[in-house]
Amino acid sequence: MTRNLKITIAILAVAVIIGLLSLRGLSKRIERLQENPSSEEQARRELLAPKVSTSTDVLSRAKIYWAAGADSTTPTEVELALSADPVKRARQVIDTLVSEAPSPEQRTLPEDTTLLGFYLLPDGTAVADFSDSLSSETPSGILSERLAVDSLVETLKGNLPAAHRLKILIHGQEVDTLAGHVDLTGFFDLNPPAAAPAAAEPVVAPASPALALPKTPASPGGHSSR
Amino acid sequence: MIVINPAHGGTDTGARGENGLTEKEQVLILARMLRSDLERNGFHAIMTRNDDSNPSYEDRSAVANAYRDAIYITLHVASTGKFGTVRAYSYQIATPPGAVEDETVSATRVPAGLVPWERAQQSHLDASKRLADLLQSQFVIKFSGSPQSSSQFAVRDLRSVNAPAVAIEVSSVAVPDPNSLLALGSPLSLAVVRSLQLFRPAAPAVPPPAGGQP
What we know:
The complex is a heterodimer of chains A (about 230) and B (about 210). With about 230 residues, chain A is an alpha+beta fold. Chain A folds into 2 domains: about 35 residues; about 180 residues, no CATH class. Chain A is about 35% helix and about 20% strand. Chain B starts with a strand and ends in a 16-residue tail after the last helix. At the A-B interface, helix 5 and strand 6 of A face loops of B.
């Protein structure tokens, strides 16, 4: 065996060893990615809508409405740290509705949905601004779109007594329909002014009321949170 | 005049099944079957589209609004729900913010006797609900697993229709065999025909109070 041949074989052997080592590293990275699937929209949600927590958070039993079959929603009591600020509180319950569905069958809003903004106007109108995913990923149909809206409306009704009606926006715009069927140009009734229910029952007695509207609105246009 | 609206069309496919079924195609077939059965039973019926076009919501409503005695039926096929179940919907309007101010504004802008286009369905909510109830009472008999009662919801198709109007949604495009969905067409048409035969657009007369003047 010539000297040159020995050198070539040695170089090839080293290259094979390096290749095997990097292949092992690559397969480990693929495994890690499979364990944590994160779509672009989910990553954006984490960036835009970090978990909402405030100094007034009180551990409460919030009723979140998820699907109970194809036609209706049913409340599930979830222990949540809820803010006294109604806008932050709305964000907390909507985030839970989107991300904590007990099972895929009970999910009413697409997993990738992001609440981009929430506003509460002085006249009791709540405005919820969602990412495009709500429109593009909700299954098309009156049945599925109704379930999506019902779960949102019922969840806000029970946890946001100050809100009288709800307006749903998609990416800051008024749209004709949610996914081709449900009319989003109007408003959905929440709590009529005279029949506002009590707020979610606190688990631990709070130092201050569990839900109290600020005496003066944050801005002339009402409360908002982005 | 029965106005049948096969929803969607053109680039708007509506619900899509993994089997390739599209809502726009299925509702067109169901609508043709329904029109044929209605005419066989003595009704006059027209369709808002009879091809793969996609008229606007307003154009579809305008077809019904051109008649004094129209009844509007919009057909949909869902992407969810137990296969073979059918649901009837009538429109529901939420109170707009500043409703009093809005009424004042509209009263000054809309001449007396005319109906604001965006609220055309408002004066027919009761009749539409009664028709949806009649339909659902037929569906629950013919389609096992269908809900007992109709629903009221903000279905976009119905908003600008100045006549009794209902949406009918069949579940669903998520079926392996396309023919099984079309097999629902005949019982669906029969249920609609029967409901329309029973339906009276005007509200039932309220009996005079006891002891009152006849």
